[in-house]
Automatic annotation (TrEMBL):
Molecular-function annotations in GO: cyclic-guanylate-specific phosphodiesterase activity
Protein name: EAL domain-containing protein (Putative c-di-GMP-specific phosphodiesterase class I)
Residues annotated as domain EAL: 24-277
Keywords for this protein: Membrane, Transmembrane, Transmembrane helix
Amino acid sequence: DEAAREGLRWKCFDPASLEDAEWTMSLLSRLDYALETGQLWVAYQPKLDCVTGVTVGAEALVRWTHPEKGNIFPDQFIGAAERSGRIAELTRFVLEDAVSTASDINSSGRRFSIAVNLSATLLVGDAIVVMVRETIRRLRFPPELLILEITETSTLRSGTEAEDILRELSQIGVQLSIDDYGTGFSTLEYLKRVPASEIKIDRTFISMLHRSQSDRIMVNSTIQLAHSLSRKVVAEGVENAEILDELIWMGCDMVQGYHTARPMPKWALRGFLETSGTEARTKAIV
Ligand code: C2E
Ligand code: MG
Ligand code: MG
Ligand code: MG
């Protein structure tokens, strides 16, 4: 096919590119192998309440540690997993790890929520609804502590199957969160219609908040708008104390970012939870 021919042409001119092309072509079989052999794992990034500073939950972020390539980040394989139908299996793996990790944490009396990213390509048929329902039942997890993050895409237009699936998910009692808010197809209409309890403002609006007056205006008005629709607001990509202060002043509900904590393996999350509230700062672990 076209891609394979491209690969051959590269072979003549650029051996380095060939290596990349071969890698991409074999990515899927390697991904299957990675799922089977435990090269995939889940990192957790703490999410803090702006007012109390308490860690109220974490976001599960998939990681792939390849024996030769090292850490491969999700942006490099989620797309391929979506296109090839591996995303359901990958999501099942992440969901299982995430819910059992949160269950563990909550067994000592906490009310810790866990967020899992849901690809829009999963919003067809009833597989995802069955998967979510089955997982929380089996692990006896309070549904309201599971947050499913969905990105705004054109597939979520009104009257589509995706919209029905989101409604079914929210009827199970799990929370929905609109991820990367502000970068996609978000319209005011979308915000009103999607049964999400939370929006996450994309980090492109957050990272320069302390320097950019226009970002401040947009973020501030987004917070006000979300609050007037009874949605909670999370800021992602909070990288320094100045940004955090701005967000607190604006009335943002929760923050996530390198300033407070990087994504980390679950064993490190336990340690973080023990020390957080006492000005915890994590090193770059992942
Ligand atoms: P996302 O859901 O928007 O996740 C936030 C991303 O921002 C993560 O990248 C996180 O590591 C990064 N991040 C957090 N704080 C900061 C910060 O202060 N500064 C900067 N520069 N970055 C920060 P990551 O882990 O590479 O994930 C990228 C994307 O891949 C995610 O974006 C999500 O869309 C997708 N993804 C990750 N795990 C999964 C998964 O299990 N399933 C699906 N469908 N998608 C996933
Ligand atoms: Mg997310
Ligand atoms: Mg995001
Ligand atoms: Mg993102």
